[in-house]
Each structure stands twice: as structure tokens, then as C-alpha cells.
Amino acid sequence: MWTDYIPIFIFFVVAVGFALTTIFLSAIIGKRKVTPQKMLPYECGMDPIGAARKPFSVKFYIIAMLFIIFDIEAVFLYPWAVVFKDLKIFGLVEMAVFIAILLVGFIYVWKKGALEWE
Hints:
By secondary structure, the chain is mainly α.
């Protein structure tokens, strides 16, 4: 019975050995020359401007959360679409309720002005 697990053990030893060898060789052979240019934060190819700890507006976080909520809605639509014919009218009504609840939330957020970026 234990002989069945020998290939898995060999694979595990080779994988761990490769990882450790790679880390060891990069520590021995790799260059470690610290320069001020290397220590600058990378910001999409642009030179950093101002402090990195500058606070963001709350609007940024609200828009990000709304994007996640409506993105998750789209993710829930895919499995429903796959089994749409099996669910018949019940699935259609359930999805209509789901979308109606999200639509009410979207209208509320829109009326509150959370989607306006000023």
C-alpha cells in the first residue's frame, strides 16, 4: 500500500528541492546593490509625487464598494443563465426579485449622489 505513494513522495521532494535550490542560488548569485532609484515606489511608470500616505476621499471607497457589489451581481447571473431552462418560471421570478432589489439599491445610491465624481 505504501508503495503507491512513492511517486507522490518523489514529486514532493523534487518540488521542495527545486524551490529551496532556487532560493539558495538567488541568494548566492543575485546582486544586492541598493540604490536610491531602486528604493523609490513604482507608480505606473511615473515619478512619485507627494507623500505615499496621502488620505483618499471617501468617495473613492464608495465607488469601489459599489463596483464590487454590481460586479458580484453579474457573477450571480452566469450560473442562473446556465440552468435557466431547468428552473422554468420559478427561476425567472427569483432572478427578477434579485435584480429588483439591486435596482432599488442602485437608484437609492444614484439619488444620494454617490456616483457623482467631483
